[in-house]
Design goal:
Length: 96
């Protein structure tokens, strides 16, 4: 880790671990679980698809291409961890 902390995970004898994602997971309603398990939760790694981090953008002009794309997007955008209002322009450098 960044802080050099060590982490351990004890798995009981009858358990197996099958990681499918790292720190960002997507559980969208359109993702379907196994057909044999209706109502199950399905997830995928969000960073391997559409996820874009903006925590490094602290002021206007840091990433003009990304700023332009988010101010005038070709389609609807979903902002996570940004205070965004429906049908409004969200400025990606205005985050805490």
């Amino acid at each position: 880790t960044v802080t050099n902390d060590s982490r351990s995970l004890a798995l009981p004898r009858g358990c197996e671990l099958h990681p499918v994602t790292d720190d960002m997971a997507l559980c969208h309603p359109t993702l379907k679980g196994e057909e044999s398990r209706p109502g199950s939760l399905a997830l995928m790694d969000a960073e391997s698809a559409w996820f874009i981090r903006v925590n490094h953008i602290e002021d206007y002009g840091i990433d003009p291409q990304l700023e332009k794309l988010t101010i005038s997007p070709p389609g609807p955008l979903l902002f996570l961890n940004l205070k965004a209002q429906p049908n409004a322009t969200t400025l990606i450098w205005e985050h805490t």
